[in-house]
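Q: For a teaching handout, I want to show students what a protein-ligand complex looks like in token form. Below are the inputs, and the small molecule is pyridoxal-5'-phosphate. Please produce the holo structure.
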Amino acid sequence: MTMGAGERELLFTVGPVEMDDATRAIGGDPLPYFRTAEFSEVVHRCQALLKQAVGAGPADHVALLACSGTGAMEAAVTAIFTPADHVLCIDGGSFGARFRKICDVNGIPCTPIVVPPGEPFRFDQLAGLDVSAFTGLLVNMHETSTGQLYDMVKIGDFCRANGLALVVDAISSFLADPYAMGDVGAAATIVSSHKGLALAPGLSAVVLGDRTYRDRVLANPPRSVYFDLASYVEDGQRGQTPFTPAVGIVYQLHDKLERLCEAGVPAAVARTASLAGDFRARLGALPVELPDYPLSNALTPVQVRDAYELYLRLRRSHGICVNPSGGALGATTLRVGHLGNLTTKDNESLIAALEEEMSACKLS
Ligand SMILES: *Cc1c(COP(=O)(O)O)cnc(C)c1O
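A: Here is the structure, written as tokens, with pyridoxal-5'-phosphate included.
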């Protein structure tokens, strides 16, 4: 039997995640034509609410893209930087490596700051560098492949002090960890529909600081047709996009942002934090370990023997899907997500299933 869309499996993944009933219902609605005043109004509202939610200013800009998060990363990097730039990239895992690859493919000079496996990123890693040689810094606020959360206030201060344009991939941190683009002083912040927002995959957004938009995005020649952010900002001023938007997800986004902003983003962050805290407290009863570095509330990297086997058993016998890890962490680390419409009762079920399968693994 294959698991198709519509068959229920409880998702402790980091994307897609459990959607709530309202979001799912919108996914079943008929779609309207979108080159209309009514759709433009919805887009305008999404732009305003999204700026509010990431802590950007009213004069900043939002580009709504029909792509997964990686598309938005590439759009942001190629719009903001050119081969005449030289960026630093904090590389603590596969998402840091993705930023590096985007630079490589697009001919943008990039010097990685590689975070040693299992260790926290430390500022003294930047100590030997001649920072004046650089113009930007790329960081995944939460490196989702390991669960490490970077200190964005410190990184923001460092970039401000050294005149670096800071591009923040907040895709897996948004609504999980506190973040305010204006306070951090970021040039751009990237978010995506299928992580903390808990919508269908396929929509991502780049929030651009107004100065970055004027001094960099508008000044640089476009290097891609589909990912020309300047054209998204320009069309966005009349509530439109240059190409067909992810219409259905825009409606899900609008509904979700209205609800979020009414309750307040800090309440959403607190909810994720409390789910993560509850799960980590319950883990105390099991023979597992957590890494030493700072963790995002979005995900708990559970270090356990037979991690991949456990992942398979949780799906097969309990209908629970956690995130396996890639590469070297595959056999040793399960990643348990806390984003989306989960409850402490769900945590309880997962812990019970883990307990059962961990003892089964030892018997076999
Ligand atoms: C999920 C994620 C992305 C985007 O991945 P896609 O598969 O392209 O959606 C980018 N950065 C981080 C940190 C992520 O967690």
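A: Two things your students might notice: The first helix runs from residue 21 to 27. The chain has twelve helices and 13 strands.
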